[in-house]
Amino acid sequence: MIFKTFIKRLFPRSFDNDIYNLTPKDLIIRKSSNHGGFKFGLALLIIIFLFAIFGPIILDVSPYEQDLTKRLLPPVWKEGGSWEYIFGTDGNGRDYFARILYGTRISLTIGFGAACVGMIIGVTLGVCAGYFGGWVDQIVSYLLTCQLALPGLLLAMTIVFLIGPSITVVIFVIGATHWAFFLVVSRSATQKIKNLDYVTSARAIGASKFQIIMRDIIPNTFSQIIVIFTLEVGIAILNEASLSFLGVGIQPPTPSWGLLIAEGKEAIFFQPWLIILPGIALFTLVVSINMMGDGLRDITDPNSKISEE
Amino acid sequence: MSDLLNIQNLEISFQSNNKNLKTVENFSINLNEKESLGIVGESGSGKTLSMLALTRLLPKQASVSSGSIIFQNRNLDELDNKNFYKEISGKKISMIFQEPMTALNPVHTIGKQLLETYLYHNNVSVEKGIERALEILDAVKLTKYKQRMDQYPHQLSGGQRQRVMIALALINNPSLLIADEPTTALDVTVQKEIIQLISDLRETIGMALIFISHDLGVVSQISDNVVVMKNGEIVEKGKTLKVLEKPNHPYTQGLLDCLFKLEDEQKKNQIKDTPIIKVKEISKSYKLPAKIFKKPEIIYAVKKVSFDVKFGETIAIVGESGSGKSTVAKIINGLINKDEGKVEIKGQNIEDIEISDRAKIIQPVFQDPYSTLNPIHTIGYIVSRPLTINQNRSESEVKEEVIKILRLVGLSEEYYNRFPNQLSGGQRQRVAIARAIILKPQILICDEPTSALDVTIQSQILDLLNDLKTKLNITIILISHDISVVKYFSDRIIVMYNGEIIEMGNTNNVINIPKDKYTKRLMSSVFSLKK
Description:
The structure holds 2 protein chains of 2 kinds. By secondary structure, chain A is mostly helical.
């Protein structure tokens, strides 16, 4: 309720009773303020972002500092836990809370970075294939078939193994193996849009192919691409976790959630929080992104109903 | 004659979150047996909704909030859904819909769909059912009706499918048939046959008919009584002839004026003798995807078409869908490449003209007001785009020019920052025209510019085009299937059929003394008001 009043105060125009006075932007604001799942996902994501950015600055904790006398301390709610180490410590006596906090940064960077790389590759290929058709389309479709036939994780492992692991490499490798969804969606959307009258009339007024693609086609595929984007962010974060778990992703001592889970697996029976805590963090982030993505799909769908409130 | 149907004060409201929107109010009609009633109104006037309420096919959000429906002396409100579908719907009351392409289930044969309807309501053997199905297919004059039983919907043309739909509706001998714009999606020549068929069948079967249409001409042919609806209310009702002769309500008057105006003379441009466009034997074909061991099939969209257009002339290309008229227009506009032939504009080959120069000579206006404007840009941006792409001018100059053009097409300055979804169909079409004329082209290609609009809006847009034509001295190529529009608007007519020109000449000559067989059929399919 508070959120809604806030939004209403911020964008009074969006809540005009006469729907015909609303611009597309007003409509999106109005619909999103009525979509529970979207609001929840977005709020959660914002909190996670704030944690990742400001947490390490405000809280004076270090994820690298070792104190071997305080190995494997339990979290505060367990017997023997203390407020000094809220989430306890790991096998090397490092503050687990600090490691998860710093891991958020890594996971978010990789998730959004890899999804961006994938989006740039996929949308470029998809829009070209859809707009130009013919042999361009055939080549792109062939590339897509190859991509889909290759086992993604194995390929990523091989490449990271050959080049050598670092955050940048992991981002690009995950991005380069996750563009199939972007391609399929943007290709079919482009094929539909390019036959609409406004594209034909843009050709008639002398707009170049580049102008048409940038001004008419891509902005109109945006609502579909953004949904795929949120989906891919979740997938990329999970992928990084798998890669790190297998030892070819982020290298220790850099804290990443996947790596934390990998390191914790030896202690799974006696210190289960070492796996459960980063697991919960991973789960929360992916769920919040997916909820937001689902919400965005509903909100940007022009056929969805406009709420009267 | 006794009352067949009596609807009193029907009110339909849409439920949308917390609000109730009344879409139909005070809808009362009375229908005798064997009588036919026409319901006229533009889109959104509630004419279809009120009939869906009668057949209980209303969309989920809509509900009947008050009113009574009495059919054959039974109050339908007292029937529960199960009994209603068993006893009334499909048996006593049948409905035909607008879109024959989607109304039949594509995975079942025609015969199966007919049998399903018949056997559900009648407790008879399959053999009897087949007998009845054949009988009704014969009655709707479906050619080769015996073979059609085993065919699937995609094997039939639009007109044939609509005949099957009629057969489906009539197989149980209903006492009331509701036809919801049954001919709107069909070609004009087919339209006439279907209306004739419905009218004949009504007499032989002896049923009542409710005919929903936006076309007063069609309604005047088929119905005894007429109801005119506007914004969910009945504004006028009475005997068809009386209403058409002496309309009481200004709205009906306006509708009629729109029709009659098309019979008036129009302003003419100064026509020079020199041709501005020369089209010589152009052809365009499409290859169907090749099958193994077969030569790829080639389909000609346009076959050796040649004609000239003079400076200042308005030339109309008419023909049914698939006749190649839009392809010709796109070739002249340089939007499609032709296979053979030559198109010269002001003595220059179309391929040799720079795209930016071509944009200043020739511009298109399209049919669908909803896809013609990019939904994410403002009206100001859409209209100014031709200027910013082709000319280097300062922002304030461009804005001034755009507002000037918007005024010219009858839109005020406040539309500059609006988005297409805030505009009505007619307003969008005005914006599309503004975009086309802002570069001051000499030729305008209008591809069915009014056929997606309501009658009253249609005549406003035609007026606007007419006005611009003389003001800016534009040569217009008008593509249409609507003869009355063509007659009102054009100096010359080109009739196309299957990609070829079959007749060409002065508008009056072609309309009054058509030579070709197809042209004759086309001209006789125009519904003028019956008097």
